Amino acid sequence: MTTWTPEDLALLAGAESLVLTAGVDGHPGVETGMVLVRGELYVRAYRGVRSRWYQAAQKHSHGQIRVGAVTRDVLLETRDTRPAHEIDAAYRSKYGQAAGALVTSPAAHAATIRIDPAPSAGRDCSPG
Quick check: pTM over 0.85? Predict the structure, then answer.
């Protein structure tokens, strides 16, 4: 697994949300909240596994994220996305108790995606 660079982590930590695009079909991305736990990036579909973008992530296992002007190729892991309780706490801390409640439900737990940087020759984020 490739890890995020310190520059990537700083960018992600300072952002409220990201735009996630799964696959290469040219579909528009979805803007979603995200959290970092132990240097790993997580998003959740609060509507659960029936969410179209979660299903696309499951189907394609790769895509892109955009944070501001930075676009990054990524791998999307939908299996074994632990630690659930730490992800819950990170969401509550970042977005508040009410907003955090949306993504700490059993449905949202089932629709957790870990986003890893895709291996590439150039490790830096590139402007989109």
Answer: yes
